[in-house]
Amino acid sequence: MSLANPSQEIAIHHHKGPLLIIAGPGSGKTYTLVERIMNLIRVHGAKPEQLLVVTFTEKAAQELKTRIANRLLELGSDFNVDEMYLTDGSH
């Protein structure tokens, strides 16, 4: 059972090309991005090092990195999330 709403489901399952997610605070952006990344890895065979994720703040980038690392561990992946290019948009 998914915790995502219909709009989040669309974003999570989008796999052809880039995706921009814009939403207000507390709307589930981080959840949606993490689930999309996991969907790309599990369903579409993307390698974590092939993914680019950009956020607007360093805090959001760190939160994403932590959540992605935890989800990859759940999958039994030994991928080092530090090899992903995950940054805030200021760089």
TrEMBL record:
Keywords: ATP-binding, Helicase, Hydrolase, Nucleotide-binding
Stretch forming the signal peptide: none
PROSITE patterns recorded: UVRD_HELICASE_ATP_BIND
Annotated InterPro entries: DNA_helicase_UvrD/REP (IPR000212), P-loop_NTPase (IPR027417), UvrD-like_ATP-bd (IPR014016)
Domain UvrD-like helicase ATP-binding: start-end pairs: 2-91
Gene3D superfamilies attached to this UniProt entry: P-loop containing nucleotide triphosphate hydrolases (3.40.50.300)
Binding sites annotated in the UniProt record for ATP: 23-30
Organism classification: Bacteria, Pseudomonadati, Pseudomonadota, Gammaproteobacteria, Vibrionales
Protein name: UvrD-like helicase ATP-binding domain-containing protein
Transmembrane segments: none
Pfam families named in the record: UvrD-helicase
GO MF term set: ATP binding; DNA binding; DNA helicase activity; hydrolase activity
